[in-house]
Design brief:
The structure is a single chain. By secondary structure, the chain is an alpha+beta fold. It has two domains: 38 residues, no CATH class; 50 residues, no CATH class. Helix content is 34%, strand content 35%. The strands form two sheets. It has a two-stranded antiparallel ribbon with strand order 1-2. The longest helix is centred in the N-terminal third of the chain and has 13 residues.
Length: 88
């Protein structure tokens, strides 16, 4: 990732209304790991996970997409998440 793309990503994340702070934790070659202070009460997606008692196990992002690994306590909670398009 070029410095220009990285800086743009970091700025866009920092400017998101749900993000309080972003910190680069580590880097390896062209990959970076970030830590975010995220106000989930201002984010419908994450608030939905909390409301359904889900656990966010991992999140991986690219410039175009995000992939989340989420575990729910019951299949019914997973079905609700899919029904309300929390999970697409």
């Amino acid at each position: 990732m070029s410095d220009e793309v990285r800086e743009s990503f970091e700025q866009n994340v920092e400017n998101h209304p749900s993000v309080g702070h972003i910190v680069e934790v580590t880097r390896h070659d062209t990959e970076r790991l970030y830590s975010l202070d995220w106000n989930v009460k201002r984010d419908v997606f994450f608030q939905g996970i909390i409301d359904l008692e889900g656990q966010l196990l991992s999140a991986t992002g690219t410039p175009n997409t995000w992939e989340f690994e989420i575990r729910f306590l019951t299949h019914d909670a997973l079905s609700v998440a899919a029904t309300v398009k929390l999970l697409v």
